[in-house]
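ASSEMBLY PREDICTION REQUEST
Request ID: AP-0331
Submitted by: J.K., bench scientist
Number of chains: two
Total residues: 738
Priority: normal
Notes: Please return the full assembly, not individual chains.
Input sequences:
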Amino acid sequence: MGWVRNLQRELFTKGGVHPPSNKIAATMKIFPGPYPETVVIPLSQHIGAPCEPLVEIHDRVLIGQKIGDSEAYVSAPVHSSVSGEVTGIIEYHHPTGVEVLSVQILSDGMNEVHPSVEPLGDPMEMTPQEIRKHIRRGGIVGLGGATFPTHVKLAPPEDKQIELVIINGAECEPYLTGDHRMMVERGEDIIEGARVIQRAVGAERIVVAIERNKPDAISVMKEIGDEYGFEVAVLPARYPMGAEKTLIKGITGREVPSGGLPMDVGVLVDNVGTAAAIYDLFYEGMPLVDRVLTVAGDGVAGHANLRIKVGTLVRDVIDFCGGLVGEPGKVILGGPMMGLAQYSTSVPVIKGTSGIVVLRGETVWKREPGHFVCIRCVLCVRRCPMNLMPYLIGSYSDAGMWEELETLNINDCVECGCCAYKCPTKNPLVQLIKVGKEGMARQQKKMEELTEALDKE
Amino acid sequence: MDWSIVGKAALVLSGLSLVFGALLAIASIKFAVETDPRVDQVLEVLMGTNCGACGYPGCQVAAEAVVEGKAPVDVCLAGGPGTAEAVAEVMGVEAKTREMGVALVHCKGGLAESPPRARYQGIDSCAAADKIAGGGKACDYGCLGLGTCKDVCPVNAIRITRDHRRWVNRGRCTGCELCIEVCPRNLIEIVPRKQNVLVMCTNKDKGRKAREVCTVCCIACKKCEKVCEFEAITVKDNRVFIDYEKCTQCGKCIDVCPNNVIVRVVPRKSRSTKPKADADA
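STATUS: Completed
Returned structure:
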């Protein structure tokens, strides 16, 4: 079968957990989201340099109009998702917990589309450079959650040939069903988008990776696959199957080297949402102004897969789904394993928000802040998909032993949360690892400065 | 029993010990490493906690540096002026009179003044909480109150109450600066020991926004700047700074401050009729 190994076997034999999948919204069609009165569009929704605002207060903007851009290469422009008047360029809440410069737009309800939004022509006749230019202009970033600018990903260095494009529809996070529904409803669009990616990097083949727990998506994609000539890889349902590195190892058997990128093993991984957004950009001309996300959890009245305009406030989305039920414990943007808990529901939905999971207080409040207690059961070591030793990293990080952390390859950690999920003493290991990564970087910087000072002497 | 064997063994062993003893005696004279006797003397008067506040890996190395002349006699920050004098006596030089400051946490807001915006579940460490959008603290600049500074303090001078207020015991604090580095919000400053009038807020937001998150925040109203007769107070970036050299500690700014952000630290002696051993602020 060429690239795809015999997938009937268990794929990654080491690591991973089976959290309750709770994919209640899997049978619900993607529904257009609320039409917000006000949107707040952060100018930094991606990895890389934040954008500069291109509009001024009281300007009238239209759907698809560029409102922020940056000169930097690793960056992606931001477009307006509604038509209306700019009411403020303000520092506003952002899902990452900091405040960033954002454009506040009061919608006029006209839904007027900017004249620049028109189909770009057949991408199959464009050169890879043109495709990348259009993708940058469309503000497309990785919609799986990492929000890395796609045009940068599609420009591998000369010496690295991409052989395989993996379209990631694994969606291993509990609750989230947006990618699943996209594959069922927009399978052909995803493949058209994937073919644009394939052309941009000159890859030989496309593989769509889907977890075994989505039989309807698998049958739809297999049917389209016979027509277009690509393979569907059926993966075991296990978290974190959809993480880039485990996915590549599962499908090709190749291991991404420590500190390396998928392109080092000739693979490029893109989310199904990104492929669909690329389709929208080339065949409809619409830049990335909305995304599909799942609203789920026991703390919200209705579960749904919604197509939400970027910049819609989370509280508007929750109200649209029937509001909160019971005492809210956590509002998580993204999936419950890797998502970011919010302190306020007035944060906007950004390009990387793959879901809004609202959990009740009694479901999540199980541990008060405390000290690191490890009983050395090494369940975390057995469950780590990256072959690390989370309990040791946690201990060193807790003790502030930054130099030792380097020997444990802490930077290979993908922060999937399997260790913390399995920990019987409920240690927040991922938090400790995050602290450790920062502490180690600070220590290394300090040591460099010290060595420089000594060299001068 | 053949006693001659015992006798022979005793002879051989004592002979061997004599020979090796002689060898060691010669070696100790011939290959002696010259050490300055003052290193040991200095080491004796240093604090001996190996806290590392001086920048050297430990007290031994610091003592060597002092004797070699690489470090000043007041190298030991934790020891304060007393240790500096003792080291100076060993070294036979005049002790430099370096004024030792005391640590000050520039935040007054506890849980009551600045109610948390979220419930924090995680590790009891300020650096860890700061990584998660500041834990539950509503103020983006204020003290998180989880006590990382308390944990590193070598002399137990910092106390954090249950409602996340913090007190620095000015009697115990030696101004060693260890706490400054661990504070993720850069709230701790070393101020001169004599300075009693202090600003207790570092919030850089504008008045209205700051007031939303804390009742004892600085709103940058500039009243203190206007009332100060000695031009000791400046307001910059919505923050108040006191020039400790110009300040005469008259306390006029304390009276005009609408949010009680500027405070006077009262030495414990004057508050209590029974002075305690460590209450010599």
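REVIEWER COMMENTS: Residues 5-10 of chain A have pLDDT under 50 and may be disordered.
SIGN-OFF: pending second reviewer
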